[in-house]
Amino acid sequence: MNESHAAPDVLDTQPNELVFEVQGKNQRHVERVSIRPNQTINIGRAWNNTIIVQDQYVDANHLSITMPEQNRFSVADNNTLNGSEVNGQAVCGGVQYCELNQVIRIGDTSITIHDANRPVAPALERSAWFSPKLRSVSIGSILALTFLTIVIALTESWLGSVKEYQFRDGATVVLGLALSFFVWVVLFGSMGKLLRAESNMKIHWLLCCAFYIILALIFAVSTIVHFNTHSMLASQIFSYALSSVAAIIFLFGTLSVASNLGSLGRWVWSILLVSTMLLSIHSNSLFLKEHQRWSSYSDKKLVALPDFLLFRQASSVDAHFDKVDDLFEFDELN
Amino acid sequence: MNFRFMVVQWRVPTLASLAAHASVLACVCFSLIVAPIAVAEEDFSSYYDLVYQIRVVSPQAASKSSIGSGFQVSSDGLLITNYHVVSSYVQHPETHHIEYQSFRGDQGRLELLDFDVVNDLAVLRLDKAQSGFFKLNSVPMKKGQVVYALGNPRDYGVTMVPGPNNGMVEHSYNEQILFSGSLNPGMSGGPAVNELGHVVGVNVATAGAALSFLIPASKVKKLAQSPRNLTSDSYSDAIAAQLKAWQRDRIQPLIDIDWSSETFAGESLFGELRNDFQCWGDTNEDRNRRSIDWVSKSCRSANYIYLDNSLSTGQINYSFEKRTSIKLSSTQFLASIESGMGADNDSNFDHSTNYQCHNDFVDRDAKNGYRRVTTCVRAYKRLSGLYDSLLLVERISGESSLVTHLSIAGAEKDQIAALNRKFVEASSHE
Question: What residues of B are in contact with residue A310 (Cβ under 8 Å)?
Answer without folding.
Answer: 361, 364, 370
